[in-house]
Structure formats: C-alpha cells, structure tokens
Amino acid sequence: LLQLNASLEQKVVERTQELQNTLEAVRSLKFQQDGDYYLTSLLINPLSGNFARSDYCKIDFLVRQKKQFEFRHWKEEIGGDLCTSYSIQLQGRACTVIVNADAMGKSMQGAGGILVLGSIFNATIARTRLSHVIQKQSPERWLKNAFIELQKVFESFNGSMLISLVLALIDDESGVLYFINAEHPDLALLRGGQARFLSPEQQFKKIGVVWS
Fold it and tell me: Contact 162/206 with Cβ under 8 angstroms?
C-alpha cells in the first residue's frame, strides 16, 4: 500500500506538470494568433472608413466584426465585413462612392478577402482622382469598370475567395443613385415615412465566381 500511494503521488505530480506544459503551449499559440490578428487589423483599418466629403450626401455606418480579441493592451476586431466611402469627380460632377461588402469565411479568411478588396478599390479611387480620362466617364461606365476590375482579380483565386457586395455611386447634387448588387442584401429606401427595398433589374453573382 505504501508503494502504491507513493507511485500514485508521483503520477499525479507528473500529470499535473504535463497539463501545465500543455496550458503554457496553448497560451503561447493564442498569443501568437492574436498577434497575427492584430497585424492584419492594422492593414485593414486604413481601407475601411468614411472618407467621403460632400455638401449634399451624408454617409454613416457601423461595423461589428465576427472576431473580437485583445493583444497586449490593444482591443481590436477582425472579420470579413467592409464599409467604405469616397468622393470622386465624374464629368465635372461631385459623386460619392460606397462599398458595403462581406467576404466569405470568418476571421483570417474573411479578413484576407477584405484586405484584397479594399486595396484594389482604394487603388481604383486613387487612379480616378489622377486621371482626367477616367473622370470623363459616365457614372454607369465607371461603376461597371470598377466592378469588372474586382471580378477579374478575384477570379484568380478559383472560387476560394468570394465577395458579396453592393457597389453604389451617388450624384451628390441630383441624388441619383447607381448601384450593382452582387448577391448582397437589397438596399432599403426610406422616403416620406415609407420604406421599400430596391431590387436591381439584374442580380450578379458574388465577386470571384468563375463563369464556365
């Protein structure tokens, strides 16, 4: 009995140490994962925001990502949602461009899609502001070209990265709205106390879907 008790005590000590080592390894992995999340959030944050400046159009939105986390003393979130807006000039008229998008997957996968989408669209806006040729385009043509550019890039992922989105453009002074909906929830119009959904004549597939 004495030998059995001594053996059991030693086994308890060994098992406790094994569990402690495993716990420390899990904590280390979580710290590294949260660090990766945080660095990714630093890349995405500059691409998501209300950058539009208009005398006629007010933009406001709220985004809550799927994954909330803490890394050291920073609290951040990461996921596949993106809301952003910009001001551009087309045919001498001030316009506001809006993107509301949702990338396939959660946490890192969704964040990867948003990082690609936000970077491409940010480059599209910058190119528009620098090019007088692009600024001569009609809103319809500009919207179509921006959508095609996004589609061509995401096709290269062979269906492993898909994006649903609403890509919209507003003529600030007239209030005319142009938009493309790629398998995203319908827009809602509130006017005169009445709300109704705006269903597009043509519903596009998610960005990244490869047509056979």
Answer: yes
For 165, the enclosing helix (H) or strand (E) is strand 163-171
Strand, coil or helix: what is 195? strand
CA 95 to chain centre: 22
- Whole-angstrom Cα distance, residue 209 to residue 79? 21
DSSP 201: S
Q: What is the pLDDT of residues 154-172, one digit of tens each?
A: 999 988 899 999 999 999 9
Q: Which residues are 178's β-sheet partners?
A: 169
Look at residue 93 and give its three-state secondary structure: strand
Q: Could you report the per-residue pLDDT of 47-83, keeping only the tens digit for each?
A: 989 999 999 989 998 888 777 777 777 787 778 889 9
- Which residues sit opposite 98 in a β-bridge? 85, 168
